[in-house]
Amino acid sequence: MSLRQRLGRLVGSLQDPQKVARFQRLCGVEAPASRTAAAAADPREDEKAEAPLAGDSRRRERPSEASGGPRPPGSDRNQCPAKPGGGGGGAPNGVRNGRATELGPASPRRAGPLRRNSLTGEEGQLAHVSNMPLYYLFCFGTELGNELFYILFFPFWIWNLDALVGRRLVVIWVLVMYLGQCTKDIIRWPRPASPPVVKLEVFYNSEYSMPSTHAMSGTAIPISMILLTYGRWQYPLIYGLILIPCWCSLVCLSRIYMGMHSILDVIAGFVYTILILAIFYPFVDLIDNFNQTYKYSPLIIIGLHLALGIFSFTLDTWSTSRGDTAEILGSGAGIACGSHFTYKMGLILDPPLDILPLARLPISVTLFGKAILRIFIGMLFVLVVRDIMKRITIPLACKIFSVPYDNIRKARQHMEVELPYRYITYGMVGFSITFLVPYIFFFIGIS
Nearest CA to 287 among 307, 305, 306? Predict the structure, then answer.
């Protein structure tokens, strides 16, 4: 057997949904017995429950299936149609990968209050969970790659810990997530098939699978934290060497546990992130200094992020990944532009190099109180800005592009509405985090 054949067999083995299902069973997650029996009795039962997204007529059936004839050897009813024009298999972006999940109200037997997709109405599958500590642990792990975590994590660094580290973490996060999202839309591999996999979380189910951007974020953030802080702050390196594998493995394993990625997806995400960091990390200082000091950097930042967005948005049709990409680019542009104006006004000054490494300040009631106050006031302001911008941008985009506004969910499924809304709204959120909120702190004396 040649090396190429061995690699092909290894890739196929790591992509096998049975391995994902086996890991789920090992962790105490199983589909209800009634559903398992129904699927075994009627293999087409799952297809009858599948409903395509609103306005999406791209789902196809093979001719042999439509006529009731024999299925081609090796066909998989859970796999999505092949990529047009050849190449890797995959579904059109925006079509749910694997088996569609139940819609409607959650059953009492559902495994916890999992998020539903606000645009597609999907919810996680019914499941028996016998190990609740693992369930909550992996729910926490998967949240480390979601919006709620980002909107708390980056402001906390910028407002309370180290603004320089926070800004540069954002630069790395934008780069890694953007490349990950674009790579998904180029490779176009579907999510693991269900059954056998039980999909506990389906918020990103309309996106492609390879590589796992959760795994990429869960690798990039802890590694970058240590690279940016060790030598700048005084702490034992062993802390970082413990943090990196714990954080990374928790996020990666959570995606397999939730049924959203194969083993190959998370391994590829990890390796891809290491490669990106090896190439681009040496330029992070240069990028951050440019953002702050160059006179015309805001214009270049906005133009570059828009250009990257236009390129990625033409890769495929609408899906949640398009909105996520616009959100990432908008946040990065807003934070970079905000840091430029903050630097020009002297609101946040980085410590001089001659006093490095920095020592941890002793925790006092005053220090702790100011930190809590900054988080409370800052997050309140950010959430208000986000809500106001959402209320302005969605109706405005609908009016400009003549999209009906009677149903916001359907309106946001139009690319010309979702993308401006995400880019402008989260651009203002990022600008608020690095400029408007620090200005408020300076004005009221808690900076």
Answer: 305
Residue type, 5: Q
Q: Find the range with the poorest average confidence among 187-201, 354-368, 432-446.
A: 354-368
Average pLDDT over residues 85-103: 45
Predicted TM-score (pTM) of the model is 0.79
Question: Known catalytic residues?
Answer: 214, 261
**Cα-trace Rg, the chain:** 23
The C-alpha atoms of residue 226 and residue 281 are separated, in whole angstroms, by: 12
How far apart are the C-alpha atoms of 128 and 68, rounded to whole Å?
A: 34
Integer Cα distance of 248 and 216 in angstroms: 9
CA angle 234, 237, 243 (to 5 degrees): 115
> How large is the greatest C-alpha to C-alpha distance in the chain, in angstroms?
77
Looking at residue 318, its pLDDT comes to 53
Residue 407's pLDDT band (boundaries 50, 70, 90)? confident
- φ/ψ (deg, to 5) at 230: -70, 125
Q: Within 233-364, where are the H helices?
A: 237-257, 263-280, 284-293, 297-313, 320-345
Measure the CA–CA gap between 438 and 29, rounded to whole angstroms: 45
Nearest CA among 88, 125, 98, 96 for reference residue 268: 88
Q: Which amino acid is at 96?
A: R
E strand or H helix that includes residue 128: strand 128-129
134 or 108: whose pLDDT is higher?
134
Q: Give the DSSP H/E element, type plus range, for residue 14.
A: helix 3-14
